[in-house]
Amino acid sequence: MHNAGFMWQIEQTVRQKGFQRIAGIDEAGRGPLAGPVVSAAVILPADFSCPGITDSKKLSEKKRCWFFPIIMSHAVAVGVGLCDHKEIDATNILAAALASMKRAVANLDTPPDYLLVDGKFPLAMDISQQAVVRGDSKSISIAAASIIAKVTRDRIMATLHQTFPEYLFIRHKGYPTAAHKQAIQIHGPCPVHRKTFKGVLQA
Questions:
Q1: Taking the model in full, what pTM does it have?
Q2: DSSP 92
Q3: Over the chain, what is the mean pLDDT?
């Protein structure tokens, strides 16, 4: 139970300052060699209770998929934003990740009055906010956003797998596994590979 209470501490501190609509923001897909970077912004109600929600990387795929509809149905608002491989190549992965986070916030149908942003960098938006390093294991809102972002991205990669089955995106989701690197060596990069990434660039 300690964990459930601990995950609310940042939100409670922010609420005490008078903010009501606190959005947690996180992204998935900075490391892969293919596909988009996907972000989610989630505003949870103050009475939301769902023990076990934490950083999506610490959860099994089954657990993430179990939490996904619970978050979607109970959240005040959920926004998703993405940057595709072309945009990542045209800028860089950090700029693309931050851009996808801003899009996720812009896609919330209830405007937030405070942002909790996972990582070191605040967003260039005119909204009160704080960046929280490793926020997905400290804030329930960021953890919820990490689950929405990860499941959404995995579903996109499963769809891309149908178009480009030889790369086995369904298995590694575009991350640089040995099997993925080998597939790039054999087939060359496909249209959704990030051409500026090490491991694709050489191919």
A1: 0.96
A2: -
A3: 95
